[in-house]
Amino acid sequence: MKTETSAPEDARPGSEEDQGERVFEGLGVSPGIIVGPAHLRDGGEIQVLEYRLPQAKLDAEIERFQEAVEKARRQVDNLKSKAESYHGAAAEELGYLLDAHLQMLRSNSLLGAVEQRIRREMLNAEASVMAEIGEISKNFAEMDDSYLRARAQEVREVGLRIVRNLTKTEYGGFDHLTPGSIVIAEEITPADTALMDPKLIGGFATDLGGAEGHTAIMARSLGIPAVLGVTGLFAGITTGDTVLVDGSNGRVIVNPTAKRLSDYKLRRRALERESRSLALLRDVDAATRDGEAISLQANLELPRDLVQAVAVGAQGVGLLRTEFMFMNRDDLPSEEEQYESLRTIVEGMDGHTVTIRTLDVGGEKLAPSLGNYAGNGLNPALGLRAIRLSLKEISLLETQLSAILRAGAHGPVRILLPMISSVNEVKEVKKVLGSVVRKLSDQNIKIADPVPPVGAMIEIPGAALAADALAQVADFFAIGTNDLTMYTLAIDRSEEQVAHLYNPLHPAVLRLIQFSVGAALRARIPISVCGEMAGDPRYTALLLGLGVRDLSMSATGLPRVKKRLLKIDMRAASHRAMAIMDQHDSGRIAALLDDFNESH
Ligand code: PEP
Ligand code: MG
After folding, report:
1. pLDDT tens across 152-193, in order?
2. Among the options 39, 214, 352, 410, which is catalytic?
3. CA of 287 to the centre of ligand 1 (A)
4. Measured between alpha carbons, how far is 302 from 368 in angstroms, rounded to an integer?
5. pLDDT, tens digit, for every residue of 264-283?
6. With CB atoms 3.0 to 4.6 Å apart as the test, which of 172, 215, 590, 595 could cross-link to 45 if both were Cys?
7. In angstroms, rounded to a whole number, what is the distance separating the alpha carbons of residues 73 and 526?
8. What share of the chain is helix, strand, coil (3-state, %, to 5)?
C-alpha cells in the first residue's frame, strides 16, 4: 500500500512520548484512519464445556492434552523465529515474552498440574486447563511483587492457547465487542475476517501478515482500516488502551496525545471528503480521456460485498471467490446451499456477468471443512490445492459445477478455474462439466443456457508461459497478479518478513503479464486482471498500456481506479508501457511509472 502523506518526524517504532504514547509501524494494508478502544484477541471469549470422563478414557484425554500442548509449542516457536529477525527494543521484549511462554509450555508446573487434575477429577482437558490457569493466576495476582503479578497474564495467555487448540475453535467471532473496537491480535486469518462486521469493528492490527495475503484483501474489501506485520504489537498493548490505526500509512499509535488526535482528525476529514467526491463518479462511464471504454468489475470475497459492488456501479463480478462458503465450518456446504448463495449474487448483479471461481483453498486459505483433503504437505502453497484438489476430489467439483450451472439460470455467469498449470486440467474440467450438464438436463433441472464459458486463472508462471496453448482450450483468461508475483519471485505474499521484496513491477512479472495478454489477443479470447494490481491506481496506466481492458478489484477500491482512468490518454500509456518493458531494473520501472502518473 502506498502512503498518502509523509510520516511525522517523531514517529519511531515503540518510541515513548508524553502521556505514554507509543508508535508502532507495520504494513498499511487497508486505508483509512480510526481511533477506538483496543480489544486484545487472546481467546478469552472461548466457551469451554465441562464434563466428566470414565476411567478408561483418561489416558486418551491426557494424550489429547499433550497434542494440544505440542501444537502450542510449535505455534510459539514459529512466532519466535519470526521475532528473531526483527530489530529494536519492542522486538527484544517480544523475544523475552515468547521465551517465557515456551518455558511454561515445557515446564511441569502448569502441564503436570493439568494432567493431575484430569486424572484426579476425571475432568475433560479444556476444563482442567481453565481451572488450573484460574488457580495459578489467582495465586500470582495476590502476590505483592508486581513482576510476579504480571506473570499471571502470561499463564493465562499460554493456557488459553492450549484451550484454543483443544477446542479447535481457533478464535471466536467478534459479535460481543463494543462498536468501534480495534482488534489487536498476533494473527488474523482470512476466515476470521469473514466474521468481522465493519459496523462493529473499527479496525485491526496484527503482528503477522503480508500486504497481499487474503487477510489484507478481505480487510480492503470490507473497508476496515488495517495494519499488519507490526513487530511486538500484541505484547505492547492492553485491552482498553486507546488505539489509532492509520491503515493508509501503516501506523498503530497507542494512547495518542491530544495533538496527535487533532492532527489525525483533520486527515480523516480529508479522506472522508475524498470518498464523498469519489462517490459522485458512480454513474460516470469508465473510459480513458481519449474515449476507450474500460470494464471495471468487482471482486467479491463475501456475499455482503455485493452491496458495495452495486453501489459503486461495478459492471460485473470479475472474480467471485467461493472460499467463503467453506470457511468457519466443519462440514462441506451442500449443493443447495451453494446454489442459493450464488443465485443471490447472480440476481443481485441484475444482468451483469458474474465470474464464479471454483474452490481455491490450500496454502494460506485452509478451510477446516475440507478436513484432511488439503494442506498437509510441507509446502502447502505448492501442494494439493485449488484446481488440483477439485480434480482429485471430483465430487467437490461436481457439486460446485452443479450449483454454478443452476445459478446460471438466473443471470449470466462464467466459470473460472484457479491455479491452472496445464491444458489437460482445463480439458478435464470441461469433461466433468459436460457430464454434470447431462445429469442436470436428464433431471429437467433448469440450468444456464448456453453452457457458461470456462476460463483459466493465469497465476502460475508456467501458465503464463504456456498461455498460447491454454488459450486454445480456455474461453477466457483472468490474470491473478497476486499469486503470479508470489510464484515468479518465490516470495510468500502473506509473509511480513519478505513483504518488502514482493513487487509486481519486477520485469519478470510484467513480461509474464505482457505475454499472457498477447496470447489472449492472438486467440481472440477475453482477458482481465483480477489480482490486487488491478485495484491500485498506481498500476492502471501500465496495465492499460500493456493491452488490458478489463480490470476486476475490490469494490471499495473501484472509484479510485475509475478516477485515475478518466485522466489517462491511451496512446501515452501504451508508449510508456513500451518504455517500461525495455527496462530490466524494477527501481527504474517504478520511477518511469510514477513519473507518468504524476504528469498524466
Ligand atoms: C491472485 O492470485 O491474484 C488472485 C486473484 O487470486 P487469489 O488472490 O484469490 O489467490
Ligand atoms: Mg490466486
Report:
1. 767 877 888 898 888 876 555 676 788 999 999 988 877 778
2. 214
3. 25
4. 17
5. 999 999 988 998 999 999 99
6. 172
7. 49
8. 55, 15, 35
